[in-house]
Amino acid sequence: MRKILKSNIVLLVLATGLMVASCSVEKNTSLSRFYHNLSSNYNIYFNGKEAYITGLERIKNSYRDDYSSILPVFEYSDENAARSGVGDMDRAIQKASKLISLHSMTAKPEMDDNKPMSESEKEFYERREYNNWVDDSYLLMGKAQLIKHEYDDARITLLHNIRETHDSEIAAESKIWLARTYTEMGNYQEANRLLTEITPGSLHDRSTAGYYLSLTDLYIRQNQYDRAVEPLSHAVDNINSKKDKIRPLFILARLYEETGNSSQATKYYREIIKLNPPYEMEFNARISQAGVFDVESGDIDEIRKELDKLLRDDKNKEYRDQIYFAHGNLSMREGKTDEAIGYYHKSAAENSANNNQKGRSYLMLAEYYFEKPDYRLSQMYYDSAVTFLDQDYPDYLEYKSRSLNLNELISCLDVVSRQDSLQHIASLSPSERDNIINGIIRKIEEEERQANTNQGERYNMGQFYENQRRFRDNIDASGKWYFYNQSALTFGRTEFRSRWGSRELEDNWRRLNKSAVSSIINPGEGEQQQNGGNTDPLTDVKSKEYYLRDLPLTDSLLKESDRKTAEALFNAARVYHEKFNDVEKANQTYTTYMHRFPDHFDVPNALYNLYKANMSPDPQLADSYRDRLLTRYPDSEYAKMLSDPGYLRRKQQETNRAEIRYNEAYQAWESDSTRLTIDICNKAIMEFPESELAPKFMLLKAYAMAPFTDEKSLKEKFVSIRDKYPGTAEAKRAVEMIAYLNEKVPDLKKEEEIEMATRLYDTVDSSPYRFIMILKDKDQDMNRLTFDVINYNIDNFTNENYNTRGELVNDSYIKITVTAFDDREKAMDYYRKFKPEDILRSKTEKEIITFIISSRNYDSLIKDGDNDRYYLFFRENYFETKD
Fold first, then answer.
1. Residue pLDDT, tens place only, 32-46
2. Which terminal CB of the chain, N or C, has fewer other CB atoms within 10 Å?
3. Cα–Cα distance for residue pair 476/482, rounded to 1 Å
4. Please, is 883 exposed, middle or buried when counting C-beta atoms within 10 Å of its C-beta (0-12, 13-18, 19+)?
């Protein structure tokens, strides 16, 4: 028996060896085809397909579904998830490539020339490939390339397979996957063309389901949810595995929800729950079921009980934000808006990692208040919504745009409120102002005393986040002066203490235990406090100067305040009209603007905008604005647009002529014909003074004049462009040229700085004065330097009560401020005696400047921020050299 078995094994080995020897791909026989098909299927292709299946499973396991939007049909569409399967897809591609290179058979089989071929034989003979697994390998390769997001490679592979395969099923499946590739690439038209070429009835079950899923994905990508329902229903019918049906069913339920078919959505959500899906999907199916529940015909109490049961279940702790959101949706559909708002707040306040859900909760609040309309509250919630929502969230760009528009509106309204409040306080007598300010300071001090004994409860982060916004809203919305709105300020301090507890106004206030670091970080703090503390009156909420600094107490400041108010009112009205189509608010705000500022330059524009805004809702009112515009401002551009139908056409013709003239000037300049360039620009500036090309003509003229003009005159040309056309590209280029000339001729820079400083600062004696030292060496020990200045003051001015403050400004220089000197002479006396070299312990090569500055000029310096510019003013107006 053993001898027979041994001889059979020998014969099998010999037969296999003879088969291999005779089975070259160059020789197309039935035996060679059998061998290469067998070897391809049960060796290389099998391993490649297994790698592909494993990779798909990895991708599915790594992808985290976002149930706040419609789930993607294919998980591999997500690039991050697809990365987890790259290794397996590479192996699948490698195996497919190996099969094609080793086992592709393109040689024609030998046929009997004397015997005519049948139709089937002709078809067989005309094949381009005789290994049945090569086209399967191309398909596998194309699928793997698509899943790796190598779309161009996938497209080429699948197109080749469609052209070369003799198998209609393989061709159809390759078309399906090519359509998916085009869908991922955003070429929806080509994807649709391919899918419409396929007849679903000719496909086997697996391909049929894939076809309908591909069509569903194509429609969903284009937000055509109503068209996606039918193919997805067919796909579900052609999927045999219950496990594989769950995800498409959930998408189908969501599509019905999006298209307003609540009964069908409810049906499929219930069906999903019965299929025992993963818990997260089951949970979301229950939540979604509550979202589509018919509150008019169903038992809403049962749904409420179901949601409350979910809330009580500890395993749903991380999903409470979604449960509260579902509660809110039910309440909103019942018409219980206050209750719904409360639930949305609870949802947003939950400490959850699901930022999209937090964003959705804020979005519901934002949209509710926008429709009300309450634009201020809506702005706050839209701002929060776009902060938390993913940028690929449906309609995210629309929400972002609305948020930006609301920000613009509220910013304008805040300017109006602030300037009105400041002007009101400025109009009071000095004693009335002092009484108001002293009352504010007393309340602040009283609250600080209370805070030392009462820490208050801490709110969670979500609630604190909301309270911060309400605090800001309360300040902005008040008609009172923003520093005098005590309810808002008290609310804000209470919320701060609830989050942080009692904190002194000092560095590192967030640290719980500061005693250990205070002596290291702030040496000499005790001495500093003994000398009156280190608080600048302009930043100290308990100083009078803090509240007076922004008041428009002079004619020039009042004029500037009016300018800000007028521009803000006009722009707010424009946003109401153009961005929100709120004609009522636009009418009110434009009317207020024109009533308060009848001589403002934009009044004709306002009348024109009012005419356009009211043409549809109230033609009679629109005509009244038109008549006012034509009567009062007949020479304005807006009046000409209404009274002269050909005005815009002629204006366009003028623009065209200006463009032709500019091209001539530019060509002359490029040809080094500078005199001709200057001549053309001069004529164009005279002919087209209001054209948008005017700054271009001026800039080109300045360039052409450079060879014939001294640096000072040339700089004046660029300064003129900068000042006349601020914000334009030509002004930006002019600024660059001014900087270049300043660097080339330093005296020009000094002249400009002195001239600007003269406009910014004055020589009026406005006490009190400050002494300031600027050390342009950020590496020095700021705290030690401050301590040394304090000691210097103690040693040399024993009877004075100077306040000393040190700070590192913009991480670039150290600023030491000594206050307060009652008058100029005392400040100058201190300035003359102070020697920086006697204070500094460490040598420095960096520049040090010292100066004194009045209270009035200090306000201007804070706004300007250029110490060197003020220093030039100081040297020019106090004395030439320091003693």
1. 566 656 665 567 888
2. N
3. 7
4. exposed
